[in-house]
Q: What sequence folds into this?
């Protein structure tokens, strides 16, 4: 999920050679400026779980870039939540664990093709965050899909959103962004509405997914600084898929999967991993980092709508008001942003 996965991409990524010595003061200044840009870009990419380096894109202007990016984010979010809803149809046969295993395999194939990592060239200093990213990636998806199985798509994704929300709030430098994040957080609490009959284990799994998403963002920032291009994300996805290989084998032995269940799980992997990844490559050129982080709060809205339309999970008026508050917070943050 996106993963694990932020916005704005100009030139080159850091190469992981932290001990380079500039030849002259002017070269040092240029490298400092380049490193600053690359660090900003890596932080941007981290929110969506990307470490890719798309080339420059001659967009028509700030307003056109912004709304093109917003449209792409909405499409990416719809794809992600639709994939999760479709994957839930395989739960009776494969269970959340089996569906997540297949999703990890699909994500690894896609990121391996795009990132083309060269693991033999990685140093231990580069491998450490990559291994951590792989572990967090698998745990995040497993806890999210387990939460979806217990409490439904809308509430599970809403709880998971608390991770990027906290990161966006901590990174915010504008009062309006902080206020919008707090409004969105209040709407999340309203959506939860804890009560005696609530499934607290399901909610706990959703909160675990949120903590993993926050860690995923921060680890991606480190990976983006230390490993060039998308190699770090690709290597982490492959490691995560290898971790789930025994799990997939055990699930298949315990209960042989049907063709339809595997098709549902593969579709979930494509819609929730491949499509969002490619869409975010486009988005990251057009939308500022904090705006992207806050815009992730639209995912609970999309999840609730997909759950309502595709899974028959009804929404009451409290859910409707909470969704409206989240949409309003995002609209205010994006429309008041300059450039």
A:
């Amino acid at each position: 999920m996106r993963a694990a996965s932020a916005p704005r991409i100009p030139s080159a990524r850091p190469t992981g050679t932290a001990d380079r010595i500039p030849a002259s003061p002017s070269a040092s200044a240029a490298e400092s400026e380049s490193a600053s840009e690359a660090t900003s870009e890596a932080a941007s990419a981290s929110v969506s779980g990307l470490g890719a380096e798309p080339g420059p894109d001659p967009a028509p202007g700030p307003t056109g870039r912004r709304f093109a990016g917003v449209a792409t984010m909405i499409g990416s979010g719809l794809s992600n939540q639709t994939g999760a809803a479709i994957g839930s149809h395989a739960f009776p046969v494969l269970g959340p664990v089996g569906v997540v295993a297949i999703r990890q395999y699909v994500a690894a194939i896609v990121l391996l093709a795009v990132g083309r990592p060269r693991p033999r060239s990685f140093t231990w200093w580069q491998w450490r965050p990559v291994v951590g990213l792989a572990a967090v990636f698998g745990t995040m998806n497993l806890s999210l899909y387990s939460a979806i199985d217990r409490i439904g798509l809308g509430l599970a994704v809403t709880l998971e959103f608390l991770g990027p929300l906290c990161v966006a709030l901590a990174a915010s430098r504008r009062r309006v962004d902080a206020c919008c994040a707090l409004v969105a957080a209040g709407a999340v609490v309203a959506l939860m509405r804890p009560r005696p009959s609530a499934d607290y284990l399901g909610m706990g799994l959703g909160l675990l997914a949120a903590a993993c998403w926050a860690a995923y963002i921060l680890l991606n920032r480190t990976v983006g600084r230390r490993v060039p291009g998308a190699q770090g994300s690709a290597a982490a996805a492959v490691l995560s898929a290898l971790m789930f290989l025994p799990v997939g084998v055990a699930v298949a032995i315990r209960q042989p999967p049907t063709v339809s269940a595997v098709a549902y799980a593969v579709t979930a992997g494509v819609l929730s991993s491949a499509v969002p990844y490619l869409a975010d490559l486009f988005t990251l050129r057009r939308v500022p980092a904090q705006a992207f982080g806050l815009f992730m709060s639209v995912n609970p809205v999309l999840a609730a709508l997909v759950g309502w339309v595709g899974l028959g999970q009804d929404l009451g008026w409290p859910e409707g008001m909470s969704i409206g508050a989240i949409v309003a917070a995002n609209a205010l943050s994006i429309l008041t942003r300059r450039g």
